[in-house]
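for the record, two folds in this file. i put them one after another cuz i was lazy. first one right below, seq on top, structure tokens after. the second one comes after a little note so u can tell where it starts
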Amino acid sequence: MDELASAVGPDKQIPAASATTAPTLFVDFEGTLHIGHASIDERGEIALDTGRPLFEFAPLLADLLEPYPEVVLVLTTSWLMTLNAQEVTSLLPLELARRVVGTTQNIKPRLSYLLGGTARTYVITSYAYGASLTKWLAIDDSVFGAERFGREPGELAHHFVLLDSAQGLGDINAQKRVKQWPREA
């Protein structure tokens, strides 16, 4: 646990010089790293409504990113509404947890984005613009309307991989996109 604490402590940030150049992967949990919606009981045990394994695709993501140690993660999961960033990060395998440099927890979408179903896309775009990211990709089952974001319509669509929540990162095409993205970035 000490290794995890030092890897994901509250002070961990991308060094300023590389903040805009580090390839950044925005990662959701539900419908991405596992199939199903989670609930937490009074003992703190987390279970999925599908009965499937929690974070079943996390080892796969770790394997896909293994050749690219420069890739960092920003968590976009709604779990951040219940748990703090360190608690959420500590649930991930160490190979992924040590890559986490931030969350979108403090970016609140406008009501129009919530009503329009594009709240997650707005939040990720806001983070990317706010951090002046140049190399980023978002994998999520809730990134709708990406073609409407950016200075020019459609210019940011290639940064988003909309996953089927019934497949998550188990989708072979999503895996291919994540695997080739760091080489393009």
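(here's the note) second protein begins now
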Amino acid sequence: MSSRKIELLPFYCPFEEMVNPELDAIEKICVDWVDRFHLYQDEGQRNRLIATKAAEVYSRALPRAEPERVADVAKWLYWGFATDDMVYDNGPVSISTADFLPIVARLARITDEPQASFEFELPHSDALRDLTVAITRRATPTQRIDWRNTARAWFYGMAWDSANGEKGRPPSLNDYLMMRMHTGGLASWATTLAIADGFELTARDADSGPVRALLESWSTLALIINDLMSYAKETQRGDTSSNIISVIASENCCSPQDAVPQAYAILDRISGAFLRLRGRLLPDADEDLCRLIKGMENTWRAILDWGFTTPRYTRSEPNAEPYQTFPGWTDEPHDSSPDPLPYQSISWWWKEASA
């Protein structure tokens, strides 16, 4: 086994695979948009970006939504991948907070107000303006506020992680679990699910402890899955962003391979908290909350079905040795304990799950 690979364990997911029947049309809209705004520097970058099939993961998460609405929000993921590779994961800016912060401040301003412009425009800024208009044109006033706040939270999370890269060491596991939902932008994903699928939570639901715990635990479990599937790619490319494997290995002074069982235990315990929160909320949930929960279920499964087939996480070139292969499914979680994890930044989720 390559030192850059880790031997993964089978994944647990209790939800069935779903996909939007208009996937091909959704992907074509997105690829045409990628070409219109040239989210690449050369043909090789174009091919790699299109090969991510980012439209597929949104199409799996939104199997019944209108194709145009799915495409509008899927553009956010294409833009995010292009920007990750150019700014966040690689290069000198990714490990210089003083250089990184002015960049993300401008990007956040564009998601606040697409009409804003600057003397020095960053690459892909016009694409960000266009997708912000496309996403928010179908949104309610509350959803537009959510979009601005959650997009800003993603940029804030990236800046926090850039500071870790500049220090040259991972954050503590407690801090990592606190921030993973922001470094991966899953709060904005939840907002785009609501916009694309045409539902809106009441303010009472959105602000309730169980729903906030549901959103946070779902965001974190989805991104831990992403950590596990992308670790080999990140190490081979020398990405500077944090990953749960490197965080555990640093905290426990162990090898990346020895960190794998603990990563799965954390994933499964958080997944269990999410499922108990879901079970607590569903009996009294209105239609909009039910649709949010369904979108979360679909997303959990979608990340697995898509992530181990997209070349972004499986191989660098068509005929290259795979970064990572799918290890299969398990019918039971590796750790089914209902006890809270011993990390104080997130332990309140379990209190809400057992209330």
